[in-house]
Amino acid sequence: GPYSKAAGNGGLNASVEFELDRPENFGLKRGWRLVTEMESRLVGTPAEGLVSRADLVTVAGARAVAVCGGPSIPIQIGRVDATGPDPEGRMPAETLSAADLKSNFADHGFNVREFIALCGAHTIGSKGFGAPDKFDNEYYTRLLARPWLNPEDKMASMIGLPSDHVLPDDEECVPYIKEFAADQDAFFNAFVAAYVKLAAAGATWRAA
What is the pTM of this model? Predict the structure, then answer.
């Protein structure tokens, strides 16, 4: 589960292995099988016992960004895997208001600019924010265009999530949306920094 700054626990620790039946993790069982498959391929290599499942999840996310044309993200190896689930109720619901989303990410240790940068990961996928396999700043230009409000598009309501729709109407969020829409390099740099921070938040590291 996500890291909680207040509680001092959670984070990118592979606890999802024990949380696959939670509603917010619907569809992740297939992805988790890929993690365990990658782990099995490390057997007999110098990485065996040194690269954890949490490391593999982190590397997979960074690699997906790069393969889709996004920036290269440096990843530190050596996380210790969780031995049980993290507390429930930390994943932000897609129906939250912008204020509640900002509060949720603040509890995870992220400011508004970092939060908006991480939202840019929604550019990958099939939610209508540009090409589904291309990592770019199209997410932000589409947010500003608000295509989900187009009455002539019968599929308009399928574009994005409610949690995306509220962002361009928030006075704290919209300056960063405009910044990243106008400057893809600024988005890439902010995303890399936020991802590295996300990947380290709450991590327990293997002793050298």
Answer: 0.93
